[in-house]
Amino acid sequence: MAELELRNISKSFGDQPVLRDLSLQVPDGSFTILLGPSGCGKSTLLRIIAGLDSQTAGQVRIDGTVVDHLPPAERDIAMVFQQYALYPHLSVRENLAFALTIRRTPRRVIDERIAEAAQLLDIEPLLDRKPKDLSGGQRQRVAMGRAIVRKPKLFLFDEPLSNLDAQLRTTMRIELKKLQQRLQATMIYVTHDQVEAMTLGDRIVVIEGGRIRQADEPHRTYAAPADPFVASFIGTPPMNLWEGALMTEGGKTVLKGNGLTFPLPAGLASSHSTKKSAVTLGIRPEDIALRELPETLQVTGTVELVEDLGADLLLHCRAGELRLVVRTARRTDKIQGQTVKLFFPVDKLHLFIDHRRIDTPTAPPA
Fold this sequence. Notes:
Blueprint: E1 4-13, E2 16-26, E3 31-35, H1 42-50, E4 57-62, E5 65-66, E6 77-80, H2 92-102, H3 107-121, H4 136-148, E7 154-158, H5 166-183, E8 186-191, H6 194-200, E9 203-208, E10 211-216, H7 218-223, H8 228-233, E11 240-249, E12 252-257, E13 260-263, H9 266-269, E14 277-283, E15 296-308, E16 313-319, E17 322-328, E18 339-345, E19 350-353, E20 356-358
Parallel strand pairs: 3-8, 3-9, 6-7, 7-8
Antiparallel strand pairs: 1-2, 1-4, 4-5, 9-10, 11-12, 11-14, 12-13, 14-19, 15-16, 15-18, 16-17, 19-20
Helix pairs in contact: 2-3, 2-4, 3-4
């Protein structure tokens, strides 16, 4: 196990910046997820940690020691890639033993570690097979086994489940989470899939444009996103967001935008007193009510589409120029084309000013 610290990491390819002054601490024994869209720099950051790429500026520290000058083989890091990288001419047993054999590890130790990893990953019956005789999930287990037998300080995973079908990805997510808990190992996992991030990690680092937008526990990332990007990236369907301006009309603060005007309660309005301030307001699809509740804002819209997910319904609505998605577990008689009243509980609203979250007396708890 190890503690990782990144200090002011920047990386450019030519004149194109990929990472911008990025700092991060990864606690010993944690399962940290690097989450972001394709091209945000998360895989480049993983390769810098592993020593496969060099940063333009900044430091990488493992257990307090600067490792920038060390080649990958001397950093005591194991990396599992999207591609399984198994040697096709070797058996599973030989694939597991390969790195240890190169290091001239005693045969007895190699056999012990292979037996331990095989039992842990439930691949004991596969040890004498070749990679071509394995399923995708079995190959991924072998790839993880190659990392485990090395007993590294740090495990790095670069979208290892993306080649698997949806059902197998779900199974492998559960197995990987159990594996981390058993090993108590420090793991860093790269993905663009927010479902993987929420279910696997005990900490999520959201990256966009080479910068960290938020680093937090999964429930806080969902319940109290730091900015509109995080709010829109975390959650399925994503948070409903609309831009507008705070204005004073008739002595009351109102939000105007997207063809809508509605008064804000005092607790929310007082969070930012500057008139005509540009703001973004958000609410999760599951937080919009179809019946009136205490302390709610109300808009009237039209149902444009109904998606039946079995346990839930998604109502795609239009109010003014604003499109909203409502998630409800209630069976409803609202059908496409009907007018519907939508109620926004004040304590479920998220307010962002200058692209930063503003905590208010009515905001959801962080």
